[in-house]
């Protein structure tokens, strides 16, 4: 019987894919669920938690030896319940009939030849190209979901609230950061000034928060630009011993002292305040549909420092799984009723086209936003 197949070199012709050339990725390290609001699995979309503010301790009154003692006053007005709703975030990719048919034909050709691992011209490329595209799309969808969760957490940290409006869904949640603790100016002036006082600014903030709430503020989230500005203060120059008059000509320690620089200045600030700085410059990129200009959007303002309370102090006043804050995630049917990220694939509406999607049911909750402080230290 004659061979019904044409020569393999004439079997199929297809352009060869050499891969993808990519831009250098911008900073994309997420800290939201790692350092601020870790994941917390919950059983349903609606979560209720009780809260009770501490009763006033006050002072016990005196009484005469033959007098009756006064009743202790217990004001429970500050007790109550909180409620959080978990929101579903998801997106999908659609693969057209030509995408799926080409991949199916390549698999069919290989199967009919009876060869498990064949490198026919174009066939292997067709198979691998489609598989690679699916993997890239899966990774991109997951990245966008990670970005959304990070945006939720860091928006709350930046503004004290989350306001969302995509034209279809609109909501606003205010977590209650007091105005006197939001985007405050440093007492010693902006850190770009030679007269600034970074150590004094932080100590003043710590004293205020401890006197007001009894918590130690020992963690800070700031951009690299802010950390680089710390050494501008003439106080660091005076510390070096190179000048004794702060009003004299400024000396740039970068050029006259070996080993001095922004990192050294930051180490001095950390030692004197007990605050540990976490560098944060993560961005997500956007581009208008049909446009060619990309924009790097910061999750957190470059000119602002976020101060967070000591976890041990939070544990002393909060015995719930929420702690300072958690990102709640609830079960989804496509995730086999398990919390976290889920995936699905749909091919029933179109016998050729295929939809693949990824989603997560998640929302952050911050019951102790009043124990945070933000300071705008550079223009």
Instruction: Enumerate the spans where pLDDT stays under 50 for 5 or more consecutive residues.
Output: 75-79
Main beta-sheet strand count, sense and barrel state: 5 strands, mixed
Rough outline: flat
Count the strands? 15
Q: What number of domains?
A: 1
The end-to-end distance, rounded to whole angstroms, is 83 Å
Strand content: 15-25%
Give the overall pLDDT as a whole number: 80
SS summary, helix count: 9
Gyration radius (Cα, Å) is 29 Å
Helix share, percent? 25-40%
Q: What's the multimeric state?
A: single chain
Class by alpha and beta content: alpha+beta
Order of helices and strands: HEEEEHHEEHEHHHHEEEEHEEEE
Brief synopsis:
The protein has 379 residues and is an alpha+beta fold. The chain has nine helices and 15 strands. 29% of the residues lie in helices and 23% in strands.
SSE layout:
Blueprint (H helix, E strand, L loop, with lengths): L31 H5 L2 E3 L4 E7 L26 E7 L1 E9 L1 H16 L10 H37 L1 E5 L4 E5 L23 H16 L3 E6 L1 H6 L4 H7 L12 H4 L5 H12 L2 E4 L3 E4 L8 E4 L5 E6 L1 H7 L8 E4 L11 E6 L7 E12 L7 E4 L3
Parallel strand pairs: 1-12, 7-8
Antiparallel strand pairs: 2-3, 4-14, 5-6, 7-11, 9-10, 11-15, 12-14, 13-14
Helix pairs in contact: 2-3
